[in-house]
Design a protein that fits this description.
There is one protein chain. The chain has a single domain, classed as Rossmann fold, CATH 3.40.50. About 40% of the residues lie in helices and about 15% in strands. The chain is of the alpha/beta class. Helix 4 links the parallel strand 4 and strand 5 (about 115-120). The protein has helices at about 20-30, 45-50, 75-85, 105-110, 125-140; strands at about 10-15, 35-40, 65, 95-100, 115-120. It contains five helices and five strands; from the N terminus they run E-H-E-H-E-H-E-H-E-H. Mean pLDDT is about 90; it is low at about 150.
Length: about 150
Amino acid sequence: MRDMAGVPAKILLVEDNPADVRLTRESLKDCKIMNELFVTKNGEDAIEFLGQEGKYKCAPRPDLVLLDLNLPGKNGRDVLSFTKGRFDLKEIPVIILTSSRAKQDILQTYAMHANCYISKPLDLHEFSEVVQAIEGFWFSIVELPRDATEMN
């Protein structure tokens, strides 16, 4: 369980659909765990955020990434590859949250070390339940690693 009394969980949402961003934000407001949501709308910004570069040089290291696959420019696979390819980021759980149900996407992202693959429900209520279940599982049940830079 999360042992950071009073410290909100930092969640990076990489999503280009404003309606899905709004719904995710609203769903996380109803969660039991304090959280802070950061949003990037494309793969380039997500990579800068994770790498703490450019306009994101002061960005926090997220505890969890919710990643859409179909993004403008660099896509979700590029972001996943970047994240899992860096020693200081590879321990961050990356949840693929996408509209794709293609078997190839599922197999490919797991091969790239995605921690979870979830197809977005079309029903708004179900979508909200999925987001709350993600938050509950990853921040109430799972033991997350500390920042890799602090492990030495």
